[in-house]
Automatic annotation (TrEMBL):
This is EmrB/QacA family drug resistance transporter. It comes from Acidocella aquatica. Pfam families: MFS_1. Belongs to the major facilitator superfamily. EmrB family. The chain crosses the membrane at residues 45-68, 75-94, 100-122, 134-155, 161-182, 194-213, 225-242, 263-288, 294-317, 329-346, 358-383, 473-490. SUPFAM superfamilies: MFS general substrate transporter. It is a multi-pass membrane protein. Residues 9-495 form the Major facilitator superfamily (MFS) profile domain.
């Protein structure tokens, strides 16, 4: 292969990876605008995020099978083309139902981009050049979340929220055509098989459970027949998947993986990381725009430092790990840094200085980057080499599940707690309150007048929502601290081999 051809393939592969990484954050700052355009509630607009993540989670596992069955280049190009078309359809959506359906398609096609791009780079570069190639690939996938919020804010403010999806079209066309022209097809095996029963059952369990979380608050949870039906479907899917895994000679997931203690603990940690990382992003975009009244582009600028913090954390932690610093110490440091950032967020108000927003974002991004490298290393270090590829798929699945569940749970709690706090605060205010009978409060917030009652209700609603946001940040802080004791059960190999984490998917920084 000529050097020019290898370079062109690398550019296309990095662009494909950046597409998937960029889309994980670019839409967050545009959520309030989508919410207004679609006449959706706060929890309904979160479906735009969770539908993408759930679809990506479900379709990550069969990526290897599909590439082997139909050819990697053919499958890669189809995945890019499908992602590009789905992005255009998202931009053209006229209702919430349409955009959620097209985001599902986007997630289904986008799930394959990261693992396929890694595989292609490993094939086209000799062993001695794989390190720099993967560093370039990592930079592309890491810079996406850094520029995503700023680019999304700029596009939304100067054009429309629809352009956060349209921007994928030219990039996708360039990457897809480049791979089609320059990347040779690999051998494919028509005889390869997949446990479709196990895959379908797991997909049913995940999809039904996510629908339950997304619609539970709106439908008053188990007082709704729909929610009870979704709970039954989730349980049925999990039962079928468990039985199929136990009885099938070649199950969808290899059960031997779950006998490894490090792997199980790693799944718990990556689930926790995913839930905190994406739930925080989903909360901060509307908080900055609705509570603090920042323009969308300003909100994007204040979200961008998280990605910078992640890059610094990845680089620093990688160097410390190479010097045999304890992985337990590194992960514990990352968790404590993340908890400190959440503690800062717990005390935010609409008058919080921008400096505090930037510092908290950098610290939280740093914590994610600082945790990921030692976590991936210990998770895969004690597994047999032949199981690491499958383990990487499960690792990505748990991260995506954590992300979608975290967004759904914090969104539902935000709505519920805001209503509860509003009732508590309103109950303490009467026309006979002395603070409302004198001065400016009497003039503008007098509950005895219709105008004063409306202004007072708006003020109470704002305070109730701020408390609800702070409660969400507090809940995530508790989960961060609760994960610390698990570090005591991690087995630390005498020799830490960084290459053992190469099968793991690269993190998608906040």
């Amino acid at each position: 292969m000529t050097e020019t051809r290898r370079t062109l393939i690398t550019v296309c592969v990095v662009l494909a990876t950046s597409l998937q990484a960029l889309d994980a954050t670019i839409a967050n700052v545009a959520l309030p605008y989508m919410q207004g355009a679609m006449s959706a509630s706060q929890e309904e607009i979160n479906w735009v995020l969770t539908s993408y993540i759930v679809a990506a989670a479900i379709m990550t596992a069969p990526t290897g099978f599909l590439a082997a069955r139909f050819g990697r280049t053919r499958f890669f190009v189809v995945a890019i083309a499908g992602f590009t078309v789905a992005s255009a359809l998202c931009g053209m959506s006229q209702s919430l139902a349409e955009i959620v359906i097209f985001r599902l398609l986007q997630g289904m096609f986008g799930a394959a981009l990261v693992p396929l791009s890694q595989a292609v780079l490993f094939d086209i570069y000799p062993i001695e050049r794989r390190g720099p190639a993967m560093a370039l690939w990592s930079m592309g996938s890491t810079l996406g979340p850094v520029i995503g919020p700023m680019l999304g804010g700029w596009l939304t403010q100067n054009f429309s929220w629809r352009w956060v999806f349209y921007i994928n079209v030219p990039v996708g066309l360039f990457a897809g055509l480049g791979l089609l022209l320059f990347l040779r097809e690999t051998k494919f095996d028509k005889q390869t098989k997949l446990d479709w029963t196990g895959f379908a059952a797991l997909s049913l369990a995940i999809g039904a459970f996510q629908a339950l979380l997304d619609r539970g608050e709106m439908l008053n949870w188990f007082n709704s027949y729909e929610i009870m039906t979704e709970a039954c479907l989730a349980g049925l899917g999990l039962y079928i998947f468990s039985v199929q895994s136990a009885l099938s000679p070649k199950p969808f997931l290899t059960l031997a993986l779950f006998t490894d203690r490090n792997f199980l603990i790693g799944l718990v940690f990556i689930f926790t990381m995913g839930s905190i990382m994406f739930a925080t992003l989903a909360l901060l975009a509307p908080y900055l725009q609705d509570m603090m009244n920042y323009p969308v582009i300003t909100a994007g600028i204040y979200l961008a430092p998280r990605g910078i913090g992640t890059i610094v954390g990845l680089i620093l932690c990688g160097r410390l790990l190479a010097r045999n610093v304890s992985v337990r110490l590194l992960i514990a440091t990352g968790l404590i840094c993340g908890a400190y950032a959440l503690d800062m967020m717990m005390h935010w108000t609409p008058s919080t200085a921008p400096r505090s927003l930037v510092i908290a974002g950098i610290i939280q991004g740093f914590s994610f980057g600082f945790i990921y490298v030692p976590l991936a290393t210990t998770t895969f270090a004690t597994l047999p080499a032949e199981l690491r590829t499958e383990a990487a798929g499960i690792f990505a699945l748990m991260r995506n599940l954590g992300s979608s569940i975290g967004i759904s749970v914090t969104g539902a709690l935000l709505v519920t707690n805001a209503q509860i706090n509003h009732a508590i605060l309103a109950a303490r205010i009467t026309p006979f309150d002395r603070t409302l009978q004198t001065g400016a409060a009497h003039q503008f917030l007098n509950p005895a007048t219709s105008q004063g009652a409306a202004l007072l209700n708006a003020a109470i609603d704002q305070q109730a929502t701020i408390i609800a946001y702070n409660n969400d940040f507090k809940l995530m802080l508790i989960f961060s601290i609760a994960a610390l004791p698990l570090l005591l059960f991690i087995r630390t190999p005498r020799t830490v081999v960084l290459q053992s984490s190469s099968a793991a998917p690269h993190p998608e920084p906040a």
